[in-house]
Amino acid sequence: MLFTPDPIAFTIFGLDIRWYAVLICISMITGTAIGYKRAPLYGIKSDDLLDMVLVSIPAAIVGLRVWYVAFNLENYHSFYDVINLRAGGLAIHGGLIFGMVAAFIMCRIKKISPFEVFDLAFPCIALGQAIGRWGNFFNQEAYGTTTDLPWAISIDGVKVHPTFLYESVWCLLLFIGLSIFAKHRKFSGQIFCLYLIFYSLERFFVEQLRTDSLLAGPSKLTDALLFSGLDPSNVPGVIHIGQFLIYPFRTAQLISLAAIIAALIIYKVRTPNKK
Length: 275
Fold this sequence. Notes:
Distance between the termini: 55 Å
Strand content: 5-15%
Mean pLDDT: 86
Structural class: mainly alpha
Radius of gyration: 20 Å
Number of domains: 1
Largest sheet: 2 strands, antiparallel
């Protein structure tokens, strides 16, 4: 994988269309199609699901951007900078949160159990993530630290971890696993909880390899010092465990831990009592 891909898929009337946008569209269409077919299995009308999709996807796109901008305010100086998605900058946790809130509101309006909708939606979301992550490859972003592993990719002549690939493969396996387990679920919300647990576990560890994590507070200084070329042993805020560097305030890791705790609580509360 030591080559540089072209981020432009094609050009229409002088407007470059990036692979990232193409793959995101494919992921949304694929996820919606699978969800539409599976909806009756969850007692949900397919048309009701489409109504939710038409509200949740725009909300998720807003969340993807807002979340990223919120942690990088110093890079945005005008409203145009904020809405210019062609310049890149999306964060999955913001999309998930905004999309879930929109779906929850639609569930209340249509009097549908949100846990049934989440059980239906999240395997499809995992598949969408598996597809969409390849947009990071074409954009040459969301990569990790240096490595000599045979599956490394080259960024500016440096071999690094393809963290987008790790997440893509994991999310594909998660989609397959959740789809199989869905046939044996014991309560509404179980698939949703399993997604939160297993996706968050992967994200927590993969985030440790990434060099472009969203950071808050002291970690912004830690990150800047670390990647300025200083010896990691001289960088404040970095915890050393063997060859691993532990960042105390990586946003995605904190959210992942919170998601796991929340999922375990929901799982415990909603598990039917055995008599």
